[in-house]
Amino acid sequence: DAPTHTAIIQARAQLGAIRRTSGAIPRACLTVDPHSQGYLRHRDVEGAWEVFDAMRTGQIPEHRPDSGRADGKHIVPVEPDAVTFTAMIMACAYRDDFEQSRALLLDMKQSAIESTLSVHNALINACASRAHSLANLGKAKKHQLQRLKVETDPAVALLKATQQLGQLEDEGHAPDGYTYLALLRCCAGAGEVARAQRLLSRMLDTG
Fold first, then answer.
1. 32 membership: H or E segment, kind and range
2. Are 108 and 85 in contact (CB under 8 A)?
3. Rounded distance between C-alpha atoms, residue 134 and residue 190, angstroms
4. Antiparallel, parallel or unpaired: β 17-19 and 30-32
5. What is the tens place of the pLDDT at every residue in 54-99?
6. Which partner for 126 in 37, 72, 101, 122 could form a disulfide, CB atoms 3.0-4.6 Å apart?
7. Gap between the terminal Cα atoms of the chain
8. Measured between alpha carbons, how far is 27 from 11 in angstroms, rounded to an integer?
9. Predicted TM-score (pTM) of this structure
C-alpha cells in the first residue's frame, strides 16, 4: 500500500548515520549531517526514485544487490498519496534538485492530490538546499552556470521559499516550527540576517 512504499522511499532517501571512517559507500551518496556530530549520512536518492516509479508502474527495475528481488519482478501498482509526494520532495531537497521538486508538485496537482502543510514544508526545504548550494559556489562554477543562463543568486531561492509560504497560507495552512526552520535555513543560505530575525520574531509571536 501507499504507506509501505512511502516508508521504503524515506528509508532509501535517508538511511541513517554512517561513521566517517566507512569506505564502503561511494562518497557521492554521502552528505554532512549537522545533527550527527562528525557522522556522514548515506542518502540513496536514486533508490527512492526507483521505489517511487515501481510503486506507480508495478514494474521492479533492474536488480539491485540490496533489493532481494530478481529482475522483472512485478508488484501491484499503487497510487502515491500526499505523504509519498512529501517524501519524494524531501529526497529532492537532500540532492538539491529544486526543479524536480517543483515537477513533483505539478504531478500532484495533475493527480488531484491536495497539498498538505508537509508538502509545502518540503518544498521550502528544497529552496533552502538550493540557497545553500548557490551560496557555496566557486567562482569558476558560478561563471559557468551564468553562461548557461542558470540562476546563481541565493536570494532567488529565498524569494521562492517566501512565495511558498504565501501559498500555504492562502490554502488555509498555518506555518509550524518546521516551516520556520526551513525558512531560516533559506535565509542563512541567502545571507539575509534581517529577514531571518523578522521570521524568528513572527514565529515567537504566533507561538
1. strand 30-32
2. yes
3. 8
4. unpaired
5. 888 887 665 554 444 445 567 778 888 999 999 999 988 888 888 8
6. 101
7. 37
8. 18
9. 0.76
